Structure prediction request, 457 residues.
Amino acid sequence: MRVEELRRLAIFEGLSDERLEQLLSVGRTIEIEPGLQLFTEGEPASHWWVLVDGSVDLFRTVGREETRVGQMVPGRWAGGFQAWDDDGVYLATGRGVEFGRLLKVPAPDLRALMEDWLPLAVHLVRGVFGTARSIEATVRQRESLVTLGTLSAGLAHELNNPAAAAVRTVESMGETLTALLHSLGELAEGAITADQFLALDRLRRRIGAAPPTRTPMQLSDAEDELGAWLEDHEVDDPWTLASTLATADVPVSWLEDAADLLPGPALTAGLEWVAGTLSVSTQLSELREATGRVSQLVNAVRSYTQMDRAALQPVDVVEGLESTVVILQHKLKQGVEVVRDYEADLPRIDAYAGELNQVWTNLIDNAVDAMDGMGTLRITTRADADAVVVEIADSGAGLDPAVAARAFDAFYTTKDVGKGTGLGLDTARRIVVENHEGTIALVREGDETVVRVRLPR
Prediction:
């Protein structure tokens, strides 16, 4: 490799021929072949690599699979961190894509040259490198823990309501079943015939499975009418029975038929048995609804976290958006109206579903904060010729243009101290742009602030 070849790279602009010769004397030329692995993520960054020609893809391990995070083009460099940090490691794996060449310089030799050429710069780089790495690691860890804590608290709150309802229903069912068995015993003691019991069961089946919706006033009038009839016929505990029968929309004519079938004391036991079966049916419906809600939340968490799924996969973008909305439901139901505008038959895209769910979480969470928890959140999806477009829009006051211009900068935040780290939108940008080769933009359109994400199909 010659000095003239290094001279055309922007990274070496301003270096004298003598210094370029020194650099070439401590380095060596590496020929690139497609598929050749040059350096490996996590290993000590003991060499500095400068791409002279050709191209190199950069990969990072995400879960159990590799994720392409970028590409080196002529003039780009990688590694060499041990020149400034004894514990420095490669941040990605480099693998050849096109035939070309790299200049490979040992980190100790690079450090020696830099200390000879620019000793102050070496001290500054070491300090900045160490400080930035420490700050970013600490803040990203805190961001992850805060997000995890928020999601966990919200999920626990959402699970608590149906779980508590299920517990209450099971306890109530125990009491109902005890009363039901007691009424069966009384029917047996009353020596009713098998034909009478079968006729009573036929009467029970005449009661509609899904009573019509009535106003509280209509329900109260029905209870009064049934209670008065039960009192007149000397039925035990008439008003408790009246409440259950009125809820099931049982008419007085039905009671008349039951009285003709079971005269005397057997009427009370028969009506208690019918009321018990109605209560059990109602309680089973409540239990089914509560456990169904728990199952829905569990499925949403599974979809959100992408448990037991490959990292790179055909992704249904709408499914990811919906699972995120469920996970963040505790923030949305306080006063946020969610308007969905999903294009029918939206094509799937090859993507890292778990990472996209992080994007949706950050964008929806920011939108809710921008509205102070009150307003309209609009989620739109549509397909372009070569991309799927997702828009997260909020009806908040919007951002000052100067603030909006820096919204995706790392560590930049407009939230109060302790409420934001400035990494949410930076993380979203990295995932969309670097990992999915898409675009993300923040614009003001009419009365809405819109974050528009384009993901290649």
